[in-house]
Fold this sequence. Notes:
The complex is a heterodimer of chains A (345) and B (631).
Chain A: H1 15-29, E1 34-46, E2 52-65, E3 69-73, H2 80-88, E4 95-100, E5 103-104, E6 114-117, H3 129-139, H4 144-158, H5 173-184, E7 191-195, H6 203-218, E8 222-227, H7 230-236, E9 239-244, E10 247-253, H8 254-258, H9 273-285, H10 300-313, H11 327-336
Parallel strand pairs in A: 3-8, 3-9, 6-7, 7-8
Antiparallel strand pairs in A: 1-2, 1-4, 4-5, 9-10
Chain B: H1 11-16, H2 25-52, H3 54-75, H4 78-94, H5 99-114, H6 122-156, H7 158-163, H8 169-203, E1 210-216, E2 219-224, E3 233-236, E4 242-245, E5 254-257, E6 263-265, E7 275-279, E8 281-285, E9 291-292, H9 312-315, E10 328-331, E11 337-342, E12 353-358, E13 361-364, E14 375-381, E15 392-395, E16 402-407, E17 409-414, E18 419-424, H10 425-428, E19 436-442, E20 447-451, E21 456-462, H11 465-491, H12 496-511, H13 513-524, H14 533-542, H15 554-577, H16 581-585, H17 587-593, H18 599-626
Amino acid sequence: MDTxxxxxxxxxxxxxxxGAAPVAARxxxxxxxxxxxxxxxxxxxxxxxxxxxxxxxKSLDIEVRKGEIFGLLGPNGSGKSTTIKxxxxxxxxxxxxxxxxxxxxxxxxKNEQIGYLPEESYLYQFLNAEETLDFYGRLFDMSGxxxxxxxxxLLTLVGLQGARHRQLREYSKGMRRRVGLAQALINDPDLILxxxxxxxxxxxxxxxxKDLILALRxxxxxxxxxxxxxxxxxxxxxxxxxxxxGELKELGRVTDLLKVQDVTEVHASGLSEEAKNEIRExxxxxxxxxxxxxxxxxxxxxxxxxxxxxxxxxxxxxRVSATASDEPAADASAAEGxxxxxxxx
Amino acid sequence: MNLxxxxxxxxxxxxxxxxxxxxxxxxQGVVLIVLAIVLGLLVGYVISAARYGPGEGxxxxxxxxxxxxxxxxxxxxxxxIVALARLAFKEAIRRRVLFVVGLFVVILLLAGWFLNPESxxxxxxxxxxxxxxxxxxxxxxxxxxxxxxxxxxxxxxTIYTIVTKPVRATEIVLGRMLGFVAVGTVMLIPMGxxxxxxxxxxxxxxxxxxxxxxxxxxxxVGKTDRVRKHEHTFTIEAGETQGLTNxxxxxxxxxxxNDDGSFTIGPPTGQLRxxxxxxxxxxxxxxxxxxxxxxxxxxxxxxxGGYGSAGISRLIGVAxxxxxxxxxxxxxxxxxMAEFTFDNVTRQRFPDKIPFDLSIRAYRSFKxxxxxxxxGSLTFKNPDTGFSLTPKQFTVEEYQIDERELPLTFEWLNKxxxxxxxxxxxxxxxxxxxxxxxxxxCLDSSQYLGVTKSGLYLRPAESSFGWNLTKAYGSIWLQMxxxxxxxxxxxxxxxxxxxxxxxxxxxxxxxxAESIYDTRHFIDSNIERGGGPIESLVRLVKQDAMxxxxxxxxxxxxxxxxxxxxxxxxxxxxxxxxxxxxxxVSTAEYxxxxxxxxxxxxxxxxxxxxxxxxxxxxxxxxxxxAREIAA
Lengths: 345, 631
């Protein structure tokens, strides 16, 4: 689907405007609080002999402000991860500068306020969840009692209390991701960098991750995430920068960027066929072009989440038969209410 | 055991070498650190200049140093180091390195089949075996665990989650080093215990009975049965129920006479020793009785070795030649002798008797009387008054330590009164300031006795074997620490396998340092002895002897020689900069010889280890700091 034709009905939109609008306003109110600033940031990867291999990032200028969720968006190889690594000081810029909390990115001190979830959870496989979090807690010079309390909180937060004594090598990808997130939050950071936060997670995990990101933002934390999952970015980010081939292509508020200026969206329920025809006529009379008028379809995400929520409420096998193929849909609609028959279409 | 001159140095003599400062370890250390700093700055500048341009490169280097001094060193937190050390420890343990301990036990069990307890000196065999096995096993292990860990962390990117925490490069390096040292320590302890038990049990044997016993005036003289190819004779004095056997192969047994007239022979004692020697100064006299610096050289024994003790002064060409101490010989039936002067011979140190040990070699210029060994004599003399006791004659027992003692009283004929007086050694033979001389002569003419400074010593005290073994293990621990430091250092900028090879090369260069010095010595002094690597190869191919002129003409000859000189001089410089591992390994020889490892020797090794670890730490820090972790 491309943006021009999303004129009517998008069920995911409940999240974005509701969450983003007030915080976006807050972000602009404290706009002077720049947490991350890149100035003319460039990175060229060289080989052993110093010959240029890839120009991964070209003169990037972005500012991430306090309290916002900033998304770096782009296809594979566009420079998202490079940017994050430059911000963390894992890479050194070829030219330009990165300032984090007004300090140079290579300074260790800045890390005290930073939490980082790497692309994949690069954790020690031979430790268990509790040991892992305890270890990272020690790296922040936390006291024994503090660590214990924090580890407990985080294990609960990411839902790994049951698996706390299993070595990470036995974990599923999603569980590792959760531990990874927990270690990123161990120091209660002010700035959280998330590299592809939703990869490897199941739809529930994705939703939980998104909710968590929003919750963290509501606690006043600044979040920079990079992703190529457009849905994620759209759902949670206040502002995005779109990178392609190492260059900044677009930068701005998600709501502004996605607003299609000359298309109007109408949601209504209980319209009869006549009423619909009437609306069509009104549109035609005003010389406008009706692009589509249809029953909305829910997203697969909604459907899936509904099914899972319901099954948690009523455990046991769902009756799925070839003859009664509309039954699950009926169940789903019973739970959600308004979106009947979406499964059939 | 033949000690070398530098073995006798005290700690401060080693550190500062009074009178020969160029040879001092202190200077060597300082030069090494200064060189490392200068080279480090230079390399750092070249790298940063390539990265950021010449001007900015300078600032980058300056910033790195400022960071180290202003933030990283003061900001280094012990608890983070401990956390990282614990991680390294757990990593190694969960990789099941403790299997090596199991492997060691298996080696010991197998060795039990092959080590011959019937050999002449079974204690030496057993002790040197366990120590050598431990040494090489632990060094190999240290090499593996230290070189692979950090590169693997970088490859797996687990390091990302570490360096994005407030962790400093200093902490990463120290954490690794300490963690691996802890692993090594945890492994050395069971290995040491197993070694002790193995040696103790391996040497244990039982004589089941007495084959011969004669009672003469209530005094019983007898002979035990033959077990492990040896037997003992024993005496039980009249009225006593217990007696001692003689020393055979370094041990003796207690023999008890039971009420029914049978004998019980106890377990072997005295074979695991840790003698604390007190060495004197040695002075040789030639056949005419004139003082000489050394005795007679009975063979071309002064070839290689001992170069290393000259430190920097050898590298820059001030000190030349080898310094290996070989046995010097005294000719029999002449005025030739070796005079040992001992200090600090006091009543406090020798309250009952003056025990002394002989470790002397014999050189026969003819077969002589095959039945009896070569005879020598010992004369105890007061260096001030010239008063001496009647020379004590002895038969040389080669390749073993001959334990003797001087009673504190002796009978003396007073020529004025004509009476025999019982007098004390401390009154007549020892000077007021506690000096005493022992003169060693050979009694058989045209036969020779060979000694070094360590060939005759007083033995005021004895330490326990267990403690001595612990010290030997301490020395292994120091070597392990050094290798771990080097391994971690190389792993900060090389990939795992390459770092391991680099560390191994350092170890091998350290082990073959003396051969390199030797090669250089012969190149320097224009003596044909095979030359450098290229020349040696040419000789090998042409099947030329080592001592002939190199059979290559003209330009090729010059080319070979100059290329060799460059190679050998470079290797020489590198080997001089590296830790002298063979000297550290040689502490095993002390334990095997039953001599208490000198505390000064251990202190020297400890300081050297600390120095090298510091150096490795600094180099690691800069490499890690300058490294793009994610690149």
